[in-house]
Design brief:
By secondary structure, this protein is of the alpha/beta class. The protein has six helices and twelve strands. About 35% of the residues lie in helices and about 25% in strands. The strands form three sheets. Strands 1, 4, 6, 7, 9 and 12 form a six-stranded mixed beta sheet that branches. A four-stranded mixed beta sheet has the order 5-10-8-11, sandwiched between helices. Strands 2-3 form a two-stranded antiparallel sheet. The chain has a domain of about 210 residues.
């Protein structure tokens, strides 16, 4: 397949969410990451890790802590208005780095399930207009609550967007399947979220990563469900009384775009660019003015 090359576009007109596989990212990290060495605490071994430049990117990786050991983590605590103002400025100015654990379950028969797993590196373009609006709106509400002396937790959950991206990757390969809950294929993303809070984030209780397995389903229904019916309402009630939860999943109009650290455009990008190129050429033919379009959809 012919491969076009482009830089990672983190301008207001660039894609909102950029994702690539972790093995590609580690081999070719962007300029805002540098390779460093550290000595392990117990075995006193020298190991390499990727250190982010805090003046260029905000690292909020929840997983792969052995590689991104200086990450802020996914839960960002604030205790004063000044801290919230500083954090808001940082989140709205610098791109955000996240990690995600991806999984695809495809049940071929009642006894056979194909499982694909992988890790992804995600760079959120906070200069994107839609991302800016979404972050500003929720963080402004958080500031109002802070000034009133109330507790809050603002969640920015990118997992649903990554699940849609993962599904599009397999569909582009011709490996389609009906998605859950009624189909035979399930796409899962975990750890790709940020919480800004002065109280604490919501506990991801009563979820099991292997609930597609028959043995796990039996255990869930026989033990965890009765426990959930008792504990979950109590937890939700006490949280509603103590803290205001804002945000959650991103707006539906936001989607992820695959990028490669070597600047290759992936199949998903080519499909989108081909659609744009055909639309431009169709418009040109209807107006009687033939034009030429290159492989990146640019007018020559």
């Amino acid at each position: 397949m012919p491969v076009g090359r482009r830089p990672l576009n983190l301008t207001p007109t660039g894609p909102a969410i950029n994702v690539t596989l972790m093995q590609h990212f580690v081999k070719h990290p962007p300029a805002c990451f540098s390779v460093k060495e550290r000595t392990t605490r117990w075995r006193k071994q020298r190991r390499q890790y990727l250190s982010s430049d805090p003046t260029k990117i905000t690292s909020c990786a929840r997983s792969a802590k052995d590689i991104f050991s200086d990450s802020k983590g996914g839960c960002l605590w604030v205790h004063t208005e000044a801290e919230l103002e500083t954090l808001t400025e940082t989140l709205l100015t610098l791109p955000i780095f996240l990690t995600a654990c991806l999984k695809r379950d495809h049940r071929k028969t009642s006894n056979t399930t194909l499982v694909h797993t992988g890790k992804a590196a995600v760079i959120v373009n906070t200069q994107n207009v839609q991302i800016q609006h979404h972050f500003k709106t929720l963080l402004a509400e958080a500031m109002d609550l802070m000034r009133e002396g109330k507790k809050f937790a603002v969640e920015f959950d990118f997992n649903s967007v990554l699940e849609e991206w993962l599904e599009s990757v397999f569909v582009s390969r011709g490996e389609e399947g009906n998605t859950w809950p009624w189909g035979n294929t399930r796409y899962i993303s975990r750890h790709a979220k940020i919480t800004v809070t002065n109280y604490g984030e919501r506990a991801p209780c009563f979820t099991c990563p292997d609930c597609s397995k028959t043995t796990c389903r039996v255990l869930s229904w026989s033990f965890f469900l009765p426990c959930c019916c008792v504990v979950c309402p109590i937890y939700r009630l006490q949280r509603c009384l103590r803290v205001t939860d804002l945000g959650g999943r991103l707006p539906e109009e936001l989607y992820a775009t695959a990028f490669n650290p070597t600047m290759e455009i992936t199949d998903a990008d080519f499909a989108r660019l081909d659609y744009m190129r055909r639309a431009v050429q169709s418009f040109a033919r209807s107006n009687g003015s033939p034009i030429k379009i290159d492989s990146l959809g640019r007018v020559l």
